[in-house]
Amino acid sequence: MRAAPANVVLTALREQIAQLDDGARLPTVRELMRAHRVSQATVQEALGELRQAGLLTSQVGRGTYVVKNGAPVIRAPVAEAPESAPDDRLESLLILSNASLNERCMLVQNHIVEELSRSGSKVVQISYHNTGHLLDILTSIPRFDAAILQSHYESIPIRLLSLLQGKARALVVDGHTVSGVDIDRVGTDWEDALDMALEHLAGMGHRSVALVSLDSMAQPILAVRRAFERAGRRKAQWQETRTIMLRGVHNPTHAVGDALKEALSGLMDGKGRLPFSAMVTLGLSDSFGIRRCLDELGIGRPRDLAVFLLGHHDVPSEHFGVMSIAGSSYLEGARRLIETIRRRLEAPQAAPQIVYLECARTLRESTAAPAP
């Protein structure tokens, strides 16, 4: 049985079709979503039933048209202003990012700007501190062909997503911080990266490990913390596991060293030893701060503590050429964002995609077997 919202949309569309000429074009899926305040799935369900009834036909990349007298009549496109370019064209892109973005986000932006500039596309980049202020700004800017919202370790207000859907024909989130919404996403499976790190540490003989995490309720952080807790219940592999959330750290590069120093110093015994031999970091991009903290506490790596980062193996500032790291590639992320946008513009009615970037592990001098 159809849900009530689908019936409402179906009835409204039937009334609209009755008033339109053969070959007339319907509003886009996103426009119908906004008009009826329903999800993309609800609109697609109604459109699908009308297509089965022979009242509509869809042209990939062009839109959905009314059929009344047999075969569909698709009118030749009329030359319009640049802002009404064909649906599959990417002429303008908006990139939004929090002002606390790390080097990985900047590298992704730089690659996208360079790639799209070759085809003459215009890119507007907005960095924001306050979401409320951003919402005010977005209400007054023009529409774009597409928008990218970079968000990895912060919660995204539904109102922001809704506003962006109204400002762009294609919206993709760079990161997996949203769930339960019909929006394309590109991000890293950090649970996979965690498995790579733990597998390596266990294989080297470590039986006690700590997960040092950014203090965030964002979905990727929570998912990895839950995965780490499950791993800790495998007593045949791990004798001691603990999660440490750094207080006062609001973004991946903010005061990481000082917060880590405060957390670790409170765990050291009288001989300056920690209750674990290995440490995995999550959501932290300040490798320099981590090294400085360990040096100031007199914790040698990997002699006293093996350190494994979850991050991006092609971002030098995250590993400085000395830290073992598991995670994805910023370059692949940038390419997949562009691909996802183009796919959405070509097929606006396709189901939203969640694109997981391939994870890899790079071993360096920060990890070794535990001291005897």
UniProtKB/TrEMBL annotation:
Gene3D superfamilies: 3.40.50.2300, Winged helix-like DNA-binding domain superfamily/Winged helix DNA-binding domain. GO terms for molecular function: DNA binding. Keywords: DNA-binding, Transcription, Transcription regulation. PROSITE patterns: HTH_GNTR. Residues 3-69 form the HTH gntR-type domain. This is DNA-binding LacI/PurR family transcriptional regulator. It comes from Aquamicrobium terrae. The lineage of its organism: Bacteria, Pseudomonadati, Pseudomonadota, Alphaproteobacteria, Hyphomicrobiales.
